[in-house]
Specification:
The structure holds two protein chains of two kinds. By secondary structure, chain A is mainly α. Chain A has two domains: 96 residues, no CATH class; 251 residues, MetI-like (MetI-like fold), CATH 1.10.3720. Chain A starts with 18 loop residues before the first helix and ends in a 6-residue tail after the last helix. Chain B has a single domain, classed as Rossmann fold (3-Layer(aba) Sandwich), CATH 3.40.50.300. In chain B, 32% of the residues lie in helices and 24% in strands. Chain B contains ten helices and ten strands. In chain B, helix 3 packs parallel to helix 6 and helix 6 runs parallel beside helix 7. The two termini of chain B are 19 Å apart. The chains are: A mainly alpha, B alpha/beta.
């Protein structure tokens, strides 16, 4: 029943020799073609009409047989059409589901473009000198963009290596009990609400120090990145065939070089995608930053001081009573979404180029040193 | 190809002992064994895969290891380059000597040993996303900073590809993705990759099982040529192949060595009834 288009609506009226070829599934029980086969059986048992010695009885039997055959063919055609209609309906439903999936993104983007673009012009400039904005106006959020970049840099610097290392460890220790435990705990960590990360960072890094800082915010975000990267890396590395690992080991690769130079390399596109998803996700996090990075009205990129962040700025702008502030919130959200999208596209393009071998890798002459390209760790 | 055995009238000898090294006539260097397995046992968890195999692999000769599926022939091969122990839960006992040195000695480094013992697997497994050239170069990259580079590396790549019988076909497409080669070419590329270390031993684990007949023939010719220089061990479930390429053939059953003999002897007048049953197709 795979393809309704295969169905024959009309059985050919010709001789029995063409029938089996026309019927895609002769003799399959429950398939209309089977009953057609019965009718044909009757006819061939009765002999061919008009042949030498053909009797009246034989002709009548043949006639009723062909009637039966036509009935069966009608029924088969109806069923086929019904199947086709149903297939079309289901395809339409799945297409609808796909449309609903992208609808929020499209509407959010449109909304942000319409509302944010207007506010973007006057506010994009990093006007955040140490001046409190005059009533009715708003300071630019250049400081928030810079702050977010600082926070993400801290989060990536701490979170990506740890997450990647944990993922490699999980993949190497696959099948052992301790690895299963760590994998489970990482999954639990994935489900922890993001504000909890903020509380932990506050307890560990804000309270003892006595003031909010970019460090605390960055660490909270890094703690969110780690399980995301570790689990995706683990999953992707598990897809690399054991045979590839063994091929490298058999060549005298040390274990670590096998893991980094061969296995991780083969899984790199997936690992990078996982890291991108993780970074994009924490880029928009507000909750862990509320009482760690805290936000800053003034221009500051000092990691030891409270720092502004785009999500925080959007949050405070949205709560503000001033229309100018709210408009600025939309602009900030537009910048955030666009930034995440552009970041994703650029990184994806970069990894794809690295992994399209025919165009990049080894296309040069024999004398090019190969270790430039794959001697070391592929991911910075 | 195979002359089938008639009941043996020779006195039954214990040919299962380490006499795989019996000299092959006509070739002066053939015979002395550089690679010797002694009482090798291998486990997967609690299951015994190889149950005490003692076997000497003649130098500059091809030794085929045959036997039914699951008889432990691949596992035996993998104990020879210490690859078996990389499987979780796997364990090895016994000794393997290469040039008289115990490769399982505590001071022996598995990676160093594996560079002297190249291995080719059943499925061609080029490193994905690398060019033909880089795949061969990858053979020595395990050396890290000690890896040769520049003209030295180029020369070694060319020599390895020549020995693998692939140079003429790929010399103009060294930069192409290795995955664009045909299956048989990929397998020869893997052989070249294993040869770039100039190993003393080459282990082949059913190297032609996934290839078309023409590629099989090329690989077999290659095995035949390589045997002039190094010790070659081929695991195969294809008895015709063993008969075609091997100087010596060892028959394994249930993890034990049943018999090892010069190939023509084993296939014409096997000493053991089980060998005879196997090569005449009564089981396996």
């Amino acid at each position: 029943m795979s393809d309704p288009g295969d169905e024959v609506d009309e059985l050919p009226a010709g001789g029995s020799s063409t029938r089996p070829a026309a019927d895609p599934r002769p003799g399959v029980p429950g398939v209309p073609g089977a009953s057609g086969g019965d009718a044909e059986g009757v006819r061939s048992a009765a002999g061919r009409p008009g042949g030498a010695g053909g009797s009246v009885v034989a002709t009548e039997v043949a006639a009723s047989a062909s009637r039966l055959q036509r009935l069966a063919a009608d029924r088969a055609g109806r069923r086929a059409r019904r199947r086709q209609r149903r297939a079309r309906r289901m395809t339409a439903l799945t297409a609808l589901a796909a449309a609903v999936t992208v609808l929020p993104l499209v509407s959010i983007l449109l909304f942000l473009v319409v509302r944010g673009l207007a506010a973007l012009g006057p506010t994009l400039a990093p006007t955040g000198s140490a001046v409190t904005p005059a009533a009715g106006t708003a300071a630019g959020f250049g400081g928030a963009v810079a702050g977010s970049l600082v926070l993400l840099a801290i989060a990536c610097g701490l979170g990506l290596p740890v997450g990647l290392g944990a993922g490699l460890w999980l993949a190497e220790r696959r099948g052992r009990r301790r690895a299963a435990l760590v994998r489970y705990l990482a999954d639990v960590l994935l489900g922890v609400p993001s504000i909890v990360f903020g509380i932990v960072a506050w307890q560990l890094l804000v309270r003892p120090v006595g003031h909010f800082s970019a460090w605390a915010g960055g660490v909270a975000l890094a703690a969110m990145i780690v399980p995301l990267v570790a689990r995706t890396a683990d999953d992707v590395l598990a897809q690399v065939p054991t045979a590839l690992t063994e091929a490298a080991l058999a060549l005298g690769y040390p274990r670590w070089r096998t893991a980094l130079g061969v296995v991780l390399r083969a899984a790199l596109p997936g690992v990078v995608t996982g890291a991108l998803v993780a970074v994009a996700r924490v880029a928009g996090e507000t909750a862990p930053l509320l009482f760690t990075a805290f936000g800053n009205q003034f221009w500051s990129v000092h990691p030891g001081r409270p720092i502004a962040a785009l999500p925080l700025r959007i949050y405070t702008s949205a709560l503000s009573g001033s229309p100018a502030q709210r408009a600025q919130g939309y602009a900030g959200a537009l910048v955030l979404v666009a930034g995440v999208a552009v970041f994703g596209l650029v990184a994806r393009r970069a990894t794809r180029d690295r992994l399209t071998p025919a165009t990049r890798l080894g296309a040069g002459p024999l004398t090019r040193p190969p270790d430039e390209r794959h001697g070391g760790v592929p991911l910075a | 190809m195979i002359r089938f055995a008639t009941p043996d009238d020779r006195p039954p000898t214990d040919r299962a002992s380490a006499d795989g090294a019996s000299a092959a006539p006509g070739r002066p260097h053939a015979g002395t064994a550089r690679l010797v397995a002694e009482g090798v046992r291998a486990w997967f968890g609690t299951r015994v895969a190889v149950d005490g195999v003692t076997l000497a692999f003649a130098d500059r000769a091809v030794t085929a290891v045959i036997g039914p599926s699951g008889c432990g022939k691949s596992t035996l091969l993998r104990t020879l380059n210490r690859l078996h122990e990389t499987v979780p839960g796997a364990r090895v006992a016994g000794r393997v000597y290469l040039d008289g040195a115990d490769v399982y000695a505590r001071s022996a480094a598995p990676a160093d040993h594996r560079r002297r013992v190249g291995m080719v697997f059943q499925r061609p497994m080029p490193f994905p996303g690398r060019s033909v050239r880089d795949n061969v170069a990858a053979g020595v990259l395990g050396l890290g900073a000690r890896a040769p580079r520049g003209p030295t590396l180029d020369a070694r790549i060319e020599r390895a590809l020549e020995r693998a019988g692939l140079w003429e076909e790929v010399r103009d497409r060294l930069g192409d993705d290795a995955m664009r080669l045909s299956g048989g070419q990929q397998q020869r590329l893997c052989i070249a990759r294993a040869l770039v270390h100039e190993p003393d031993v080459l282990l082949l684990d059913e190297p032609t099982a996934s290839l078309d007949p023409l590629s099989v023939q090329r690989i077999e010719e290659l095995i035949w040529a390589l045997r002039a220089e190094i010790t070659v061990v081929v695991v195969t479930h294809n008895m015709q192949q063993a008969a075609r390429v091997a100087d010596h053939t060892a028959f394994l059953l249930d993890g034990r060595l049943v018999e090892v003999a010069p190939t023509d002897v084993l296939f014409t007048t096997p000493a053991d009834a089980r060998t005879e049953a196997y090569i005449t197709g009564r089981f396996g």
